[in-house]
Specification:
single chain, alpha/beta, Rossmann fold, 7-stranded parallel β-sheet, 3-stranded mixed β-sheet, 12 helices, globular, binds nicotinamide-adenine-dinucleotide, binds thymidine-5'-diphosphate
């Protein structure tokens, strides 16, 4: 048995990855360390709660005691745990620095102390900053993060790099573009808009809606991470992207059309401060070295994702109350 410690496995990508790993490899045991912040949800892995090769530990990656108690003996640590929403980082960056920077440091120290053979840092293309209308992020693009979120992720990446360089820690970093798919918390563009539209509520488009993101289905991201933790070269960075650029307005119209809702539900609202114009990933390296490529066509993935939210209204309803409504009002006010 190979033992993998996944952190942040109760979030969107982490939960999809845990499910993917347990289903695709009968020789893997997964330990999931998650603090269960607002974004962490036990319901995301409820189907696996009693799985014989799965164990959940509630805990914070900044807690050295907990981390030192579960890291010894694992074959790999894959760090998904993070504060992940740009808009929240604009309201308050403190939890981002704590979890994304100090949490990563805590994990790195434990990986070093107990000589774990592999550490994978799940990073983001946002560390590269913003592109103009042309060009792509490669692994050589200089880091130029623009939001407190991306700055905290870039700081973590640099720490990982330094632990590899200084201590020979066997680390690999992945930098992926915008994910979509089932179990995504409805604060991010696609699930926010789907869940609002399902309730006939307006959808808030920042600025003119001309910003571009490179969309990837979460399962394509999971398949890439699976290749990287097993076969990626230590000390390397691997970009992962969907090769699927869309403006926010294109996404908005695609969702309205798929759900049969009127364009009168679009609200153009005040732009996000420091809003990155465009992200686009060059993923030649992972294609050439590991034979990965994105497989899920966007239209199909989006249709399936919409269906998942339609079929999981209880999951949505359990989230869209309390803290969520307070956040929503702070972020958007009342959309009329
Ligand atoms: P998410 O916000 O859905 O989930 C984050 C998870 O981490 C939650 O389960 C939360 O409870 C847990 N967590 C937060 N702080 C913790 C702490 N201190 N200790 C332990 N657990 C903690 O995030 P996501 O969208 O699934 O993103 C996962 C990772 O992938 C993040 O590192 C993010 O930066 C990166 N990433 C995300 C995207 C995207 O489009 N969502 C794209 C590229 C990279
Ligand atoms: P988001 O899902 O927050 O991901 P990121 O900022 O990490 O790329 O946002 C995706 C794009 O959608 C981004 O350009 C901001 C925009 N957006 C809106 O226009 N309205 C919204 O309510 C949200 C959450 C995002």
């Amino acid at each position: 048995m190979t033992r993998v410690l996944v952190t942040g496995g109760c979030g969107f990508i982490g939960s999809n990855f845990v499910r993917y790993l347990l289903q695709s490899d009968p020789e893997v045991q997964v330990i999931n360390l998650d603090k269960l912040t607002y974004a962490g949800n036990l319901a995301n892995l409820a189907d696996l709660a009693d799985h014989p090769r799965y164990r959940f530990v509630r805990g914070d990656i900044t807690d050295r005691e907990i981390v030192r108690s579960i890291v010894p003996g694992v074959d790999a640590v894959i760090n998904f745990a993070a504060e992940s929403h740009v808009d929240r980082s604009i309201h308050d960056s403190s939890p981002f620095i704590r979890t994304n920077v100090l949490g990563t440091q805590t994990l790195l120290d434990a990986v070093r102390e107990f000589q774990i053979p592999r550490f994978v840092q799940i990073s983001t293309d946002e560390v590269y900053g913003s592109l103009g209308p042309t060009g792509y992020f490669t692994e050589e693009t200089p880091l130029a993060p623009n939001s407190p979120y991306s700055a905290s992720k870039a700081a973590a990446d640099l720490l990982v790099r330094s632990y590899h360089h200084t201590f020979g820690l066997p680390a690999v970093i992945t930098r992926c573009s915008n994910n979509y798919g089932p179990y995504q918390f409805p604060e991010k563009l696609i699930p926010l808009f789907i869940t609002n539209l399902l309730n006939d509520q307006p959808v808030p488009v920042y600025g003119t809606g001309a910003n571009v993101r490179d969309w990837i289905h979460v399962l394509d991201h999971c398949r890439a991470i699976d290749l990287v933790w097993r076969r990626g070269r230590v000390g390397e960075v691997y970009n992962i992207g969907g090769e699927c650029e869309r403006t926010n307005l294109q996404i908005t119209h695609a969702l309205l059309e798929a759900l049969g809702k009127p364009t009168s539900l679009i609200r153009f609202v005040k732009d996000r401060p420091g809003h990155d114009l465009r992200y686009a990933i060059d993923c030649t390296k992972i294609k050439n070295e590991l034979g990965w490529r994105p497989q899920v066509p966007f239209d199909e993935g989006l249709r399936e994702t919409i269906r998942w939210y339609q079929q999981n209204l209880d999951w949505v309803a359990a989230i869209r109350n309390g803290e969520y409504l307070r956040y929503y009002e702070k972020q958007y006010g009342v959309l009329v």
